[in-house]
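To: structure subgroup
Subject: Chain for Friday's discussion

All,

I'm putting the inputs and outputs inline so they're searchable in the archive.
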Amino acid sequence: MTPIGEEPARRPIASRSSPWAIGLSARLAGAGITPNAISLLSIVFAAAGGALIAYGAHPLAWWPAAACVQLRLVCNLLDGMVAIEGGLKTATGPLYNEFPDRIADTLLLVPLGYAAGVPWLGWACALLAALTAYVRVFGGALGLPQDFSGVMAKQRRMAALTVGLAAQGAESLMASTRWSLLVAAVVIAAGSMATCVSRSLKIARALERA
């Protein structure tokens, strides 16, 4: 587990080196906007996206919901960049790095199940998403490098949700079915379960080698 005051494990993200991310994070840091505030903003976008998924009566609501998912990810990218590259780390940073993610996942994935007509599947997606993070952090608590790999790590989980929502927007213009949402939920649940298993096996193998 990352000791207090030390930099938490960072998820490898290719867009962290992109010019737009570097420029935007520098402007946010220059404005004194804290990484913790950015982390909390991700919950706001997730709540907006979840509300659109749950209550969006118009077919075009699915596309703004997909945009909210991506804005949540942008916040997840920028909070770490403002903290590390921007030099605005806080003692509570590791806490804000994890807890808002779990809340955001739940706010987006539980409504997905209800919108797809299978409420328990949304709850399963949220539970398995939280479990992937638990396994990762538990490996870190055992003194191992945190493992961000897996077929349905956070970025891939949100990518699957984004594609499902975008596809549902097109589907809703042609039919009243919600197959796109159902497929997205099944893919996220199955992929998250596979990620939990693969990460757990890696931990077990690392412990056996130690």
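Points worth raising on Friday:
The chain is about 75% helix and 0% strand.
The radius of gyration is 18 Å.

D.
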